[in-house]
Design goal:
Elements lengths: L6 H12 L6 H16 L4 H15 L6 H12 L2
């Protein structure tokens, strides 16, 4: 694969390689893509807040047991 990068990005890559942070441009790009993949899968602050709120509701007893829910749906809608 051949990729054309803007000169400022090439310069950043070369500087990092010359500084010894990475053995090669390829190594840096692999690390960057893996970090991007990781970052895309992280939970947002909104997600984390919603999880904490749900956990608080569960601790307060404000939930429906899954088996009870399934039984209710079967009674209501049939199997």
């Amino acid at each position: 694969m051949e990729v054309k990068l803007p000169p400022e990005i090439e310069s950043l890559i070369n500087d990092s390689v010359e500084a010894g942070k990475y053995a090669s441009a390829e190594e840096l790009l692999v690390a960057a893509v893996l970090q991007l993949r990781h970052d895309e899968h992280e939970l947002s602050e909104e997600d984390l807040r919603a999880i904490k709120e749900a956990e608080a509701e569960i601790e307060a007893g404000n939930y429906v047991d899954f088996d009870d829910f399934v039984a209710e749906m079967k009674r209501k809608y049939g199997e």
